[in-house]
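Intended use. Records such as the DoxX family membrane protein entry shown here are meant for training and evaluating sequence-to-structure methods. They are not intended to support clinical decisions.
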Amino acid sequence: MFSDALSRYRPHSTTVLRVSVGLVFIWFGLMKFVPEASPAQDVATRTMDVLSFGLVPAEATRPLLALFETAIGVGLLTGVLLRLALAAFFVHMAGVFSALLILPGEMWNGPMATPTLEGQYVIKNIVLIAACLAVAADERRR
């Protein structure tokens, strides 16, 4: 019985991954449209400041990230311009993970380099990357 359900689910598993990550990105993106609603906004703003060499004003960073994340989420959710959404996703993840190097004092605790809560917030994105790699592989196969 359980294996029958899994067999019926298998053809839809990549779509479920794509839609799930899309919903997460829409949710996190929408939160960044509201000041102080996202627990990641301060780290994201400081990371963007370093990555843009200070060229993107701090007050523009949050709404730009909100728009970027929401657009990625919509692309993943709908499948419209999926390859573009996936490319944007992976570029965004490179920026997100750069915080581990750019802001080491905020990302890591003590001599054993255990992640802080902010570091854990970044590291959990490995799961989203794995999901989008599966989606990208499936899209490429088509």
